[in-house]
Amino acid sequence: MRRIAVRNSLIHGRGVFALANMAAGDPIIEYKGEIITAKEAQRRVERSTVEGGHTFFFNLDDGRIIDGARGGNSALWINHSCAPNCKAEQQGDRIFIYATRAIDEGGELFIDYQLDIEGRRPAALKRMYAFRCGARRCRGTMLEARW
């Protein structure tokens, strides 16, 4: 039985939605894709023709990256929220998404991206990652809280 589906989101573009009630701690999906180096990821961003260099990258603890746009699955459509109902956990070189609280059937799944961008932090970069998730304590960005 399928537990999730990709649909249009009221928050942003496409999103992932629960097809059944989920409890806190329930495993939902693995974030799949091609594992690449940070250097290759930068090359892909520079060659991208997508507006704003949009990617489906998920960083691993060792500096490598999972590129969900290549060999990925529905997990790449999970949207950001400052009040997430899911979390990502790394196990080796794999990322799994788990519910952090109960999610009702039909509810959209969210993780807090907390993007960590190294180097200079110009206003243009902050604008590029601006996001209004609608959470009561929305910080207005997909970047990590220190921004």
TrEMBL record:
Q: What is the lineage of its organism?
A: Bacteria, Pseudomonadati, Pseudomonadota, Betaproteobacteria, Burkholderiales
Report the protein name in the record.
SET domain-containing protein-lysine N-methyltransferase
Q: Which domain of life is it from?
A: Bacteria
